[in-house]
């Protein structure tokens, strides 16, 4: 065992450094609107990223783009790809320190090494796991709220309101993440962006099949002059049918997922209840 690893001051220093990285990642960065204003003020792009040069050298631009898209899908608009990378590094460092401590407590055994490596790996993947979970939860929430929104939108359009006015009315009645995205879309329209471009940008941000289908259908209906009320009603029906099919598919997978818990917990308990008294009686008789 290396004396450096066994030194408690080394572990404390590593833990402090990891904690510092995690805290550093929570410092807010300028929003997308602030970045646009900076561009309008002709601030050079390289000057905007000088403070993050080390992280950018570690992480490729393609990776940063992917992380940025995932952050947008999760609704974490106040978190930049650089901050997400710093969180991952901090979590990895903290997990490594905890892993080394567990290794030392286990007496340098093989089990201690495996436990330490497992702890470091889990800590490294934890930020990405939480991000993926937030993305999935947000998409499910939007998919659940979309049919009611489409019903209300079709009703207001059928009542004679223009599409923009109908969007405003339906957005006020919406809830959760879908309402936040629709409000952002309406704000872009008020600032002069075309409705088709604003809706397409919303579909790109959310990256959910039902929303993409809705935006594509609405844009095409406007271009072709189709009956928008009928299109919206069909979209609401299709969205509900798709959610119902997903629910049936999930229910069909439950018996398969229950096999392992039953094999690990229920079946051994059942065997113990059946054969336990017999074994106890046999042991008692054998002792006599």
TrEMBL record:
It comes from the Bacteria. The chain crosses the membrane at residues 6-27, 86-105, 111-131, 259-280. Gene3D superfamilies: Type II secretion system (T2SS), domain F. GO terms for cellular component: plasma membrane. It is a multi-pass membrane protein. Residues 149-275 form the Type II secretion system protein GspF domain. It is found in: Cell membrane. Keywords: Cell membrane, Membrane, Transmembrane, Transmembrane helix. InterPro entries: T2SS_GspF_dom, T2SS_GspF_sf. This is Type II secretion system protein GspF domain-containing protein.
């Amino acid at each position: 065992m290396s004396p450096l690893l066994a030194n408690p001051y080394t572990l404390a220093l590593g833990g402090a450094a990891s904690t510092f990285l995690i805290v550093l990642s929570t410092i807010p960065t300028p929003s997308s609107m602030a970045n646009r204003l900076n561009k309008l003020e002709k601030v050079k792009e390289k000057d905007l990223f000088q403070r993050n040069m080390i992280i950018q050298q570690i992480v490729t631009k393609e990776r940063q783009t992917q992380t940025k898209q995932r952050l947008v899908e999760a609704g974490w608009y106040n978190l930049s790809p650089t901050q997400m990378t710093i969180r991952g590094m901090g979590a990895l460092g903290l997990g490594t320190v905890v892993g080394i401590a567990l290794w030392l407590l286990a007496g340098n055994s093989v089990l201690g090494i495996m436990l330490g490596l497992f702890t470091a790996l889990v800590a490294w993947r934890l930020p990405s796991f939480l991000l993926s979970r937030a993305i999935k939860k947000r998409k499910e929430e939007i998919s659940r709220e979309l049919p009611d929104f489409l019903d209300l939108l079709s009703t207001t359009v059928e009542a004679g309101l223009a599409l923009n006015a109908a969007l405003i009315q339906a957005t006020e009645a919406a809830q959760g993440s879908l309402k936040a995205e629709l409000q952002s879309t309406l704000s872009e329209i008020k600032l002069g962006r075309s409705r088709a471009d604003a809706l397409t940008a919303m579909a790109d941000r959310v990256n959910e099949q039902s929303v993409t289908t809705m935006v594509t259908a609405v844009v095409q209906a406007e271009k072709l002059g189709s009956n928008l009320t009928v299109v919206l009603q069909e979209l609401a029906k299709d969205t509900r049918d798709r959610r119902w099919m997903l629910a049936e598919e999930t229910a069909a997978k439950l018996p398969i997922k229950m096999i392992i818990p039953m094999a690990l917990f229920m079946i051994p308990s059942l065997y113990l209840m059946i054969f336990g008294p017999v074994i106890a009686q046999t042991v008692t008789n054998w002792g006599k």
